[in-house]
Write a structure and sequence with these properties.
By secondary structure, the chain is an alpha+beta fold. It has 2 domains: about 100 residues, no CATH class; about 100 residues, no CATH class. The chain is built from 5 helices and 8 strands. Strands 1, 2, 3, 4, 5, 6, 7 and 8 form an 8-stranded antiparallel beta sheet that branches. Strand 4 and strand 5 form a beta hairpin.
Length: about 210
């Protein structure tokens, strides 16, 4: 699914959650709150969840987009999943449970249907879905293909080869580029602006009501 479709779907689901929370909050406010300006309080109780959820989501999306752009990784939604490799190359996926592709800076696919991979400096070695092995030099753009892992090892001067599942490699590479604390910082930022939007909604409704 494209990123635009995913965002619309997320906003639709947030609308459902906001509506449910808003109804419950409005009913509680109506029966448990004081009679003074009750109508205004009920309106605030209904609108506040929408303000918080939408702002929290958009804040997180913007924060992740900025971080992803700086680290050359995907933001975690849509159908473009990628992490950087050496010399302006990327490992790219349409879906994380599908084989990956090695793509050069200009967008040309160099090796595709990759199911296992290891990055060895400027060289990338791996295995494709058809049980073939390869070695790709990111500096010279040279691709060598081999029928067996032993042939690949021989071409690599008998150096030890530790191929990793391509999805696991993606996850590990991404976690190296973006720390847990950075995700937490974005969450805190989104939470703060979400609470701010909720309070602003409250003041606007009270002022106009």
């Amino acid at each position: 699914m494209g990123i635009g479709f995913v965002i619309v779907l997320h906003l639709f689901l947030l609308s459902i959650v906001g509506f449910i929370v808003g109804i419950v909050s409005s009913v509680v406010t109506y029966f448990a709150g004081k009679k003074e300006r009750r109508r205004v309080k009920v309106v605030v109780a209904f609108m506040a969840p929408f303000a918080f959820l939408y702002t929290f989501y958009m804040g997180g999306l913007i924060g992740l987009s900025i971080l992803a752009d700086r680290r050359n990784v995907d933001i975690g939604i849509g159908d473009d999943w990628h992490v950087p490799l050496e010399n302006n190359h990327t490992l790219s996926f349409i879906d994380l449970d599908a084989p990956g592709s090695i793509v050069e800076k200009g967008g040309r696919f160099v090796v595709w249907d990759v199911i296992a991979i290891e990055e060895k400096g400027n060289k990338i070695v791996g295995k494709t879905e058809d049980n073939q092995f390869f070695s790709y030099d990111t500096r010279t753009d040279e691709v060598q293909k081999f029928k067996t892992e032993s042939d690949l090892k021989s071409a690599s001067n008998n150096k030890e080869i530790k191929l990793m599942n391509v999805s696991k490699f993606y996850s590990q590479k991404k976690s190296e580029l973006i720390s847990t604390w950075e995700y937490i910082s974005i969450a805190i930022f989104s939470l703060l602006i979400g609470v701010g939007a909720m309070n602003m909604t409250k003041h606007i409704v009270f002022f106009t009501g």
